[in-house]
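Section 5.1 Outputs to date
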Amino acid sequence: MSPTDSPSNEHDLQTSATYRALANSLPLSVLIKSSDGRRVFANEAYLKWRNLRWEDVAGKFDSDLFDEEIARKYSDDDRRVLESGQAQHAVERTSVADGSVGWIERVKSPIYDANGKLLGIQVLFWDVTARVQAEQKSRFEQSLLNTLLENIPDSIYFKDLQSRFIRVSRAMAEKFGYHDPQEIIAKSDADIFTLEHAEQARKDELEVIETGVPLVDRVERETWPERDDTWCMTTKMPLVDEDGDTIGTFGISRDITALKRSEAALKEAVRMADAANRAKSEFLANMSHEIRTPMNALVGMADLLAQTDLSEVQSEYVDTIRRSSDSLLRLLNDILDFSKIEARKLELEAVPFSLGYEIQAAISTLRYQGAKKNLELRLDYEEGLPHYFVGDPGRIRQILINLIGNAVKFTDRGGVTVVVKRLPPAQTEPASVDQPHPDEVAALEHSGAKANAANESDSEPENESDITDGGKTRLLVSIVDTGIGISPEQQASVLAPFTQADASMTRRFGGTGLGLSISRQLVELMGGTLQLRSELGVGTTFYFDLELSVADHTDLERNDDDLEEDLGGEEFVATQPLRVLVAEDGVTNQHVIAGLLRSLGHECSIASDGRETLSKWRSETYDVILMDMHMPVMDGLEATVEIRQQEMGTDQHIPIIALTAAAMAEDARLCREAGMDDYLTKPIRRRKLHRALEVIHPIGAAAAVSSSVSVGSGAAFTSSKTVDNQSGITVEGSPRFARSPESADRLVLGNKHAGCLDLDSARSRIPGGVSGVLRLAAVFKEECQSLLELLETDISTGDNDSARRNAHTLKGACGLLGAKQLQTAAGEIEEAGREGRLSDPDEAGTLLQSLQTEANRVLAAVDELLQ
């Protein structure tokens, strides 16, 4: 609208050049409406913001430019301004020229002429879309923060530079014992926690403020003035403003008290499990020691007795003793093997061996049992298979003996066939039970299997290269019997430990149910799988796969003597006589070992502890030392280390063979580390002892082997005089030990001392019968009195280690005479010394009093015995 075409009042407004210049210079949008709502002026900022020309808006009403809703709102606002005469300020949504919705902040005010007449409305507005959106975003983020702080179960806080809380989450307020988070504002950790915890927290926050480095996932123990301690995992960060200045700290912490308690409970459970595991291992080691020690005497004496002139009945008795001993040893070895496998401590060898030989050896071992049932034991070894492999022959033979032995045990007619066939290299799994491999099907046809003679199984393969893949051969070994079979329901559990197909079989067939479980685990250790197929009344096939490297048979040193032992060979090639120093503290074992050495043509001298062993080794010449690991004063390991240290710088090296009842792998390792050359496990077999000594050559010309043997704490075999090297006691075969004809074969105590000594048991263990027991009783009396004096001194000075050693020696001595109550009292002191409890005067005094009481009773019984 041009000024000339407008009414006079409109013309007055438009012709004000000063007003127009001022309005156009403003960054604000300026719009003037007449009192009836028509647009009469718009500055350049308005037109630009609306993307319009003046011609587009001049004289237009709101309804001409905006939709009905917005136009009505604008008109209503104009009317209220005109009616009230008051300016109106608001932020409102509006349509932008590009069609989007924006926000403006506007001021509407009435316009009057010089006479106070209302002319219209002036609208001033500016774009605040960015500000409104920022405010909306800020309000949304504030809402998120409030929601987080109100609902998160973790503790969140913000602190100023003085470590005063400026905001906290509701969970943190409730943790601190407040209902409203605002109650914590301006407080510090010192107002809530103990001073110790508050000081550490302040120290951490100062470090975060100074370095700007966050403290992440710190586990803290929170100590409260009147509450139990709690635990939390906390992260602390520097609080930085928009300018990058650090204005405090903030952080989050999570309560992990329940987790720490669970962790403590888990650690305790693990500790208890470890303790139980250690206790089991110690029990097995102790059981091995305790069983093998008397077994050594039993087996050794039986071997010696078998070499004497015996009647047919006596020979049968000796054979029974030896078979029973072998059964006990097999049971003991099964339990130890199972424990080693369970603890993952069993290591496999990798040595060259002949598979055919090992199978024949296993068959030979069980041929006698099979012959008693008229069973045929056969080997079907596939033609063309290699015979020499690299693996663990001992464990493979153990598997075979277990499986063949079971087959023989549960087969009353027919026979047992061991079938060895090739598996294709591409087959990665053994034949399954439901879908057996064709080779296994052939193995099941045992009735028609071709039996090879033993000498045929050792023939050389014609073309080994045709059946090997990268130097390895996959084998399927099947043990097929015509026995009673196993029902499908029982097959699933028969390979589990301590399980047999039927509980009634334990009574009929015997056994612990460990053999198959051990065999399965050994096969798995070798990378194979043990499976079975069976049909009741028809028979059973156990089969397993092995992948073995082929060995050059020229590198294999076969020991035919092993097979000879399995077949019952007893003769030995004579070796040069040796001078053997035996370090052994057990009287019974001294007798057995000395007897075995004498039967092999060797001379021996016995030392009762490591210190005496060192003394004899320094003063005399010996060809070899048999060294017991566990001895009083100085054990075998210490003595060996001392000998090896003294040999350093010289060309001397005396062979030392460990001699112990402990059969755990750890003991073998300790022996090797101490410098021992070989390892013999009790009970000592005559053949094993012969093999260990046959590789040793005497130093110079050995003196003629004496018919008598010098014994330290035991009895000489051909002399009526026994010299004990520890106590210096000499007991002559004097009349004081003479017995009346009525009592020459009996040992009896009066009612007063009955029960102090187990004389019947002592007589059965100690060589020499009644005389042997009497000689030992005299030695025991002096040794017991000496050890009591030493223990009194040890306990009075609180010397736990010395008391432990002396109590151990006394405990062993008591066992020989069956002084069980005194043995128990000595064992309690040994355990207290091991745990360091003898430093407590009250406990030590009580234990010593108990020991002295029992010792007085036992010594009185010994006096009565020797009268």
